[in-house]
Amino acid sequence: MRFVxxxxxxxxxxxxxxxxxxxxxxxxxxxxxxxxxxxxREGGRVLSADLVVVAAGAWSPQLVDLSSQxxxxxxVLAYLDLTEDEQAQLGHRPVLMNISTGLFVIPPRDxxxxxxxxxxxxxxxQPLAHPPLGSPPSVSPGSDSNPVVVSTPHTxxxxxxxxxxxxxxxxxxxxxxxxxxxxxxxxxxxxRTRLCWYTDTPTADFLVDYHPRWPRSLFVATGGSGHAFKxxxxxGGRVVDCLLGRRPTDLGxxxxxxxxxxxxxxxxxxxxxxxxxxxxxSDGSVIVTEDGSRGGRPGLILExxxxx
Length: 308
Ligand SMILES: Cc1cc2nc3c(=O)[nH]c(=O)nc-3n(C[C@H](O)[C@H](O)[C@H](O)COP(=O)(O)OP(=O)(O)OC[C@H]3O[C@@H](n4cnc5c(N)ncnc54)[C@H](O)[C@@H]3O)c2cc1C
Description:
Bound molecules: flavin-adenine dinucleotide
Largest sheet: 5 strands, antiparallel
Strand content: 25-35%
Structural class: alpha+beta
Number of helices: 7
Helix content: 10-25%
Shape: globular
Strand order of the largest sheet: 6-7-8-5-12
């Protein structure tokens, strides 16, 4: 990411502003309304723009109502410290993934082994201080009694004591036993754990399109679904193609904003808990990624699993 940043900075054509967007701004709610920019948390500074592009990963649903499009899901991973000898034994193995369980092990570097699970993930429904842009009119802006609730990333950056649920620990132990051929590692304590946040779509296709309500002033590039990083060297060009109306034909409708309708892989209700947590679409369904590669169980609620 530093390399890409330096390349972009070297063009001299990009003005970088570090800050956290608190809210997107519009000219009003009626016909012909435009998205005009963003207000930053830092000092309330307003950035104005002819076109606003939201590419905030798993945080995107906090800024724009994406309840019919994407959902943030937390995925477990852990690190183990190795000896030099163990590093030498495992360092040249490929990435190994069990596509039936989603469990995978990354070959170690610098004596650190990474084990993780590509899963349906945990939902973390939280009330938002500001309703995301485009929330249904029934949601009164800023209402404390009826806040918008969306699945929201919970990371060690804001909670240094964050651990991972016992259910996730058990899965990662299973991965070590099944995938790593060194028995001395199977019960070695984790050096540290992380919850990483995916931005999941029903089919794991990205969401790269203009917002249907603001088709000239708001563009969304998100929905990484756990596999966007590998496209880093090429994805910028494709995003610009979509932005300029030159959507590559082989992408067809894949990256488009999905209209709700019969046949869309928009998820049955995975669990009562997930449904009750009001994470998901206004009709009560919850997005579940069915791309054939996910392990774990759909609809687990992070807070509940952490208490078990
Ligand atoms: C555990 C794990 C393993 C993964 N493994 C792989 C893999 O092997 N291969 C692969 O291809 N992909 C992998 N991925 C997925 C990949 O990391 C994501 O798909 C990719 O990073 C998504 O890119 P993005 O630009 O949409 O979002 P991000 O990379 O999350 O970027 C979003 C940015 O927006 C910023 N932001 C958020 N909110 C705001 C705000 N309000 N104001 C300002 N800025 C904001 C964030 O700080 C962040 O810098 C993995 C993800 C996880 C969690």
